[in-house]
TrEMBL record:
Family: Belongs to the LysR transcriptional regulatory family.
PROSITE patterns (alphabetical): HTH_LYSR (PS50931)
Organism: Hahella chejuensis (strain KCTC 2396)
Top-rank lineage group of the source organism: Bacteria
Pfam families: HTH_1, LysR_substrate
Ranges of residues in domain HTH lysR-type: 1-57
Record flagged with keyword S-adenosyl-L-methionine: no
Name the UniProt record assigns to this protein: Transcriptional regulator
A single MF term (Gene Ontology): DNA binding
SUPFAM superfamilies named in the record: Periplasmic binding protein-like II (SSF53850), Winged helix' DNA-binding domain (SSF46785)
Keywords: DNA-binding, Transcription, Transcription regulation
Length: 297
C-alpha cells in the first residue's frame, strides 16, 4: 500500500495520471491500476475522473492530508534505523544535577566531543526534576534511580552522604553527639518543596529519623555548601561535593559513626536515566558507555 500511497500523492501533485506516470517512470495504465487498487482496499473513490483533470473527492482530500504525514514519518523512521549501527551523530540533550554536573560531567565533555565529532551536546545544569518525554531530554543524571518505571537507569557512582559543618560553627555551637541533637542546630536543607524535612541515620541495626530545620533551604547543594563553609550551619550533602573541603580542613565531618541519608533506600548514588527504547540512538549509547568507562564501579 505504501507504493500506492506514493502514487496517489504524486497524482494529486501532478493533476493527471499521465503526468504522474512520467515523474514515477510508470505508464498511465500502471498508475491507473495502482489508484484502482488503493480505492478497492479503502472501499472509497478518491478521485472524480474527467477527460481533462482529476478532482479529489472529499475522501481523497481526507487521505491526502494524512498520507503526506504518514510517509514523512516513515522516512524519518527509516533514516533513524539506518543510524542505529552507524557512527554516533546528531544532537544529544542532557540534564544534570547542578553541582554534580559542574564538578564531574562538564570536565568530561571536551573529551567526549573529540571522540565523537558528529555529536553536538545540549546540557542543562539544573536541580528540578525533568520529564524525559515531555522535555525531550535524552539523558538525565540525578541522585537515586528514577521513579518512572518507563525509564532505565545506569548507575554511575556509589554515593554516601556526609554531615558537615565548618570549624567556626563547631567552635561556636559544639558538635552534635547523637542524631537527635540536630534538632537544636541550624541545619541547611535540601528541600523539594516539603514543609517538613527529615534526616535519616543508621548504625548497624540501629535506625534514627530526625526532623530538622534551619535558616536556609535549596533544591540544589551549592547554596548550602557555600553557607556551610561560612559557618552558617550544618548540612547533609554528598561526599563527592564535600570531600575537597574536608581535605582542606574547611569542613569537619560530624557523627562519622552514623551513615546518613536524605531519603529512604537512597544513600546518594548517581544514576543516568534514559528512555527504555529498544532502538537506542548511537549518540545516547555512546555517551552512556563513555560515562560507564569513566566512572568505574
Amino acid at each position: 500500500m505504501l507504493d500506492e500511497l506514493k502514487t496517489f500523492i504524486k497524482c494529486c501533485e501532478c493533476g493527471s495520471f499521465s503526468a504522474a506516470g512520467k515523474t514515477l517512470l510508470l505508464s498511465p495504465s500502471s498508475v491507473s491500476r495502482q489508484i484502482d487498487s488503493l480505492e478497492t482496499k479503502l472501499q472509497t473513490k478518491l478521485f472524480q475522473r474527467t477527460t481533462r483533470q482529476l478532482i479529489l473527492s472529499d475522501e481523497g482530500r481526507f487521505l491526502l492530508e494524512r498520507a503526506e504525514d504518514i510517509l514523512a514519518r516513515l522516512d524519518d523512521t527509516v533514516a533513524s534505523l539506518r543510524q542505529l549501527h552507524g557512527e554516533p551523530e546528531g544532537r544529544l540533550r542532557i540534564s544534570v544535577l547542578e553541582t554534580y554536573g559542574r564538578l564531574h560531567i562538564s570536565p568530561l565533555l571536551p573529551k567526549f566531543l573529540a571522540l565523537y565529532p558528529k555529536v553536538s551536546v545540549d546540557i542543562e545544569l539544573e536541580n528540578q526534576m525533568v520529564d524525559l518525554y515531555r522535555d525531550a531530554v535524552d539523558i538525565a543524571i540525578r541522585i537515586g534511580p528514577p521513579e518512572d518505571s518507563r525509564l532505565k537507569a545506569k548507575k554511575l557512582t556509589d554515593g554516601r552522604m556526609l554531615l558537615c559543618a565548618s570549624p567556626d560553627y563547631v567552635a561556636s555551637f559544639g558538635p552534635p553527639q547523637a542524631p537527635e541533637d540536630l534538632a537544636r542546630h541550624n541545619c541547611l536543607l535540601i528541600s523539594r518543596g516539603r514543609r517538613q524535612v527529615w534526616w535519616r541515620f543508621h548504625k548497624g541495626q540501629e535506625h534514627r529519623r530526625v526532623q530538622v530545620q534551619g535558616s536556609l533551604r535549596s533544591a540544589g547543594g551549592t547554596p548550602l555548601l557555600e553557607s556551610a563553609l561560612q559557618g552558617v550551619g550544618i548540612t547533609l550533602l554528598t561526599q563527592w561535593s564535600l570531600q575537597p573541603y574536608i581535605d582542606e580542613g574547611r569542613l569537619l565531618p560530624l557523627l562519622p559513626q552514623w551513615r546518613a541519608s536524605l531519603y529512604p533506600e537512597n544513600g546518594g548514588e548517581i544514576y543516568a536515566a534514559y528512555i527504555d527504547n529498544h532502538y537506542m540512538r548511537p549518540a545516547i549509547r555512546a555517551f552512556l558507555d563513555f560515562l560507564g568507562a569513566h566512572f568505574v564501579q
